[in-house]
Amino acid sequence: MQIFPHQKQSAFAKGGWVKPLYLYAVSLVSLIVIIIGTVTVGNLLIRRYVFGLRSQWYQDPAMSCEHFLPSGAVGINGPKMIPRGADDPELAKLSAAERTKRYNECVTAQAKQMEMQEKFQFADTVSWSVAMILVGAPLYLFHWRMVRRREE
């Protein structure tokens, strides 16, 4: 409501502050998304190719196969950590040589699974980070250009 009809309404009174606020907010959020994506890709590449680290903490594949060891053998976790043969009656009937063979097969399978999981995790992290950059960059550029045009 205007008290004096000959005066112009201010931009604030017309709601002219909403559009610039929106443009600045979207620009800020999209810039943060770009930064997070870039830092994540950089961190992953530095850890992998500079330091030679995996994307996850290394686990020994033999740890999940100790139940195949012969009952007299000492596993990675020490003696009597896993009740050998208690869970599976068929496993208890196997000879020591057969149990050692199954143990070695299990370790090989676990190592392959862990390698595949590590590759998947690396690819998943890189793809998410690149997607963040690819979505954030156009949003930022579009909205920041709108801010610049509005200021001119």
Question: Can you tag this structure with a few keywords?
Answer:
mainly alpha; 152 residues; rod-shaped; 0% strand
3D architecture notes:
This protein is an all-alpha fold. It has one domain (23-151). Helix content is 62%, strand content 0%. It is built from three helices and no strands. Helix 1 (18-50) runs antiparallel to helix 3 (96-151). The protein starts with 17 loop residues before the first helix and ends with a helix. 7% of the residues are buried. Residues 79-86 have low confidence and may be disordered.
Low-confidence stretches: 79-86
Mean of the pLDDT scores? 78
Largest sheet: none
Distance, first to last CA: 29 Å
Question: Which structural class do the helices and strands define?
Answer: mainly alpha
* Helix percentage: 55-70%
Number of helices: 3
Form type: rod-shaped
Radius of gyration: 31 Å
- Secondary-structure element string: HHH
Q: How many strand elements?
A: 0
User: Any idea how many domains?
Assistant: 1
Percentage of residues in DSSP E strands: under 5%
Chart the SSEs and their pairings.
Layout (H helix, E strand, L loop, with lengths): L17 H33 L38 H5 L2 H56 L1
